[in-house]
Each structure stands twice: as structure tokens, then as C-alpha cells.
Amino acid sequence: MHCLGIETSCDETAAAVVRGGREVLSSVVRTQVDIHRVFGGVVPEIACRAHAEAIGPVVEKAILEAGLTAGDIDLVAVTSRPGLIGALLIGVSAAKALAWALGKPIVGVDHIEAHLYANRLVHADFAYPNVGLVVSGGHTSLYFSRGPADHERLGATRDDAAGEAFDKVAKIMGLGYPGGPLIDKLAREGNAKAVDMPRLDDGGPDFSFSGVKTAVLYKWKGQNEGKGKRPKPEHRPPPAADLAAAFQECVVDALVSKTLRAAEQRGVAAVAMGGGVACNSRLREKMQAACDKKGLKLFFPPLAYCTDNAAMIAGLGSALFEMGTVSTLELDATPTR
Ligand code: KG4
Ligand code: ZN
Q1: Exposure check for the chain: N or C terminus, fewer CB within 10 A?
Q2: How far is the CA of 286 from the centre of ligand 1 (A)?
Q3: Any idea where the domains of the chain sit in the sequence?
Q4: Topology alike, domains 2-118+306-322 and 125-300
Q5: Edge-to-edge order in the sheet of strand 297-299
């Protein structure tokens, strides 16, 4: 079965063709990052317009690169939740039009569940149950997963998502956008122990990143010097690489310890990660070391399937269809889960 996946929940217009739920025949991602960079974040209205322009060519390219024609598509899967409502609507409308024109079924897919499913595209031994950590620009959540679409939420962020914290800290430090990859790179030259940071693990399953963001702001600009204000002349900020490393270490430590505790409490043998922040080299390194120590198997996707893509949507869409889940042309976009 050939499934065409469509993803437009944030700032990537993506389409992909997946065969049999796991074999990626094509995965096309047109990022809007250059458009949003000047604003230092995603501007929803601009994202919608860019999706509307890109969706047709991106879908055509995905079908072409898979070596197929539109008639070979058996199922259309689309991200229908959660995300920016206008952005989601572009993908959902395109998917409905295609499904109707081709006379093929359509299935709406949850973007967060798809981030975890990305592991199934690449790891033949990916198994359930597991504890899954989704860390992206919009979400930071911990799940106990019994299957591709059976996830019990164990914890989530009370304020910023982990990726959002990376992006905001990079903005405070004037590093650029998106901040995650820039901090990851800069932190490699820094000493995380050189700057004090709060400990973020409170022993519970929920996350909070606003405190560490404020800590970075004060270290960089001086206490009580709000956003956008100039630091006092006498303020001596730490070296940027040290501050980046200390911030990253603090976030990574919280993600690792909370995930490992959940895995232990649920008695699972495997841990999975997904989402853009799962690209972070320090998170991969520390999560791997912690899992090795506890005898847990760790799964994370390659970089291209951590960040937003449509292969994970087509994959999960196929799995849902196999389990008997289909949507109708009444399918609507939902901004929340
Ligand atoms: O999953 P994703 O592409 O989009 C959402 O669903 O939000 O995640 C994007 C987020 C951004 O906040 C970006 O800064 C972060 O992932 N990110 C990283 C890294 N690469 C991307 N964060 C930390 N380290 C990285 N290497
Ligand atoms: Zn995402």
C-alpha cells in the first residue's frame, strides 16, 4: 500500500510517499525558515501563505520522486492536529481535495504521535511498550506508548517547549534563528560547569523551562535588565559558549532524568525520542549513556526524521488505516490535541 503523507502544521511544507507503513519512497520538505528568520520566530499568517504556494509542487515532487503517479496512491494521510490552525488547514484542504479527486481514503494524523512513529520508519526492532519523549519547538511531553496510536501522557511542559527555550535563549544571546542547532554547535566549545544554572528536575513528570530562560537572561544582560534593554556597563557576561553549554546541560539533564524515571516506573525495556530537539547532540549522548547504564534500548530517528517531515505522517497514517481507522471528507484541522 502506497500512502501519501502531507504535513503543514508549522513552518515546513512536506509531502512523502511511504510503502507498507515503513518504507520511505520519497520525503520532500520545503522549509520556510529563511522567511521567518527576520522575525526571530514563526509568523502564522506568513506560514499559511507560504504553505498555500508550496503545497501543490511539494506533493507533485513527492509522488514523482517515489517513481509513481497520482493513480498509484492508495491512501492520503495528513496532519490534522495539533499545530497552527491556518497552517494545518492548508494541508487538510489539499489532502481532502486529493483524496476526493483520486477516490481514495483519507486519514487524519496526530503530529506528536507521528514524531514518535518516525522511529518505526528506520528501526526494524522498534517495539512497544516504551516510554517516549517528544521534544520539539511546540511540544515537550512524555508518554507511555502501548502502540503506534496508543499513548498515555505521563507529563508535559507547564510553560515553554524545550525547542522554544532553545530558540528564545538564542534570541536573548543574539545568536540567530532557529536557536537549537546554533546552541548545540556553540556549546561544544564551552564549559557547562563554568556557569551556575538551576536544577530543573523537581522529581515529578512535568517540565518547566521558563526559569532557566530567565537565568540565562540575567547572566547575559544582568539581573533585572529586561529583554531588549542594554546590559549595565559594569555587567560582565560569561563567555557565550560557556553560557550556551550550561543552559543546554541544564535542559538535557532534566529531559534525561525525567525520561529515565518514567521508564523505570513503567518497567519498560525501551525509550524513544522524537521531535526537532531530539537532533541535539548532547541530549543524544547523555540519553544514550543513561539508557546503557540501566540496560534500556534507546531509539531516536536520524536528523531528517526528527524535525518536521511527512514520512512520519504517511507511516502513522498507514498504521492507523491497517488498524481500521479512517477519516471522512468532514475531517477538520484542530489546533490542540
Ligand atoms: O519538530 P520540529 O521540527 O518542529 C516542531 O514540531 O516544533 O522542532 C523544531 C525545534 C526548534 O525549536 C529547533 O530550535 C529545535 O527543534 N532544534 C534543536 C536542534 N535542532 C532543532 N534543538 C536543540 N538542538 C538541536 N540540535
Ligand atoms: Zn514537529
Answers
A1: N
A2: 18
A3: 2-118+306-322, 125-300
A4: yes
A5: 150-156, 140-147, 130-135, 270-274, 297-299
CATH superfamily of 125-300: ATPase, nucleotide binding domain (3.30.420.40)
Q: Which grid cell sits at 87?
A: 497552517
Question: Which residue, by CA, sits nearest to atom 21 of ligand 1?
Answer: 276
Q: Can you give the C-alpha Rg of the chain in angstroms?
A: 20
Predicted TM-score (pTM) of the model is: 0.95
Q: How many CB atoms lie within 10 A of CB 292?
A: 11
Q: How far is the CA of 171 from the centre of ligand 1 (A)?
A: 14
pLDDT in tens, 74-112: 999 999 999 999 999 999 999 999 999 999 999 999 999
Per-residue pLDDT tens digits for 10-44: 999 999 999 999 999 999 999 999 999 988 889 99
Give one DSSP letter per residue of 113-124, joined into a string.
HHHHHHHHHH-T
* Cell of residue 214, nine digits: 530567565
Domain over 2-118+306-322 is classified CATH 3.30.420.40: yes
In this structure, what are the phi and psi dihedrals at residue 215, rounded to the nearest 5 degrees? -60, -45
Phi, psi of 130 (to 5 degrees): -150, 170
Q: Is the peptide bond before 82 cis (omega within 30 degrees of 0)?
A: yes
Ligand nearest to the CA of 307: 1
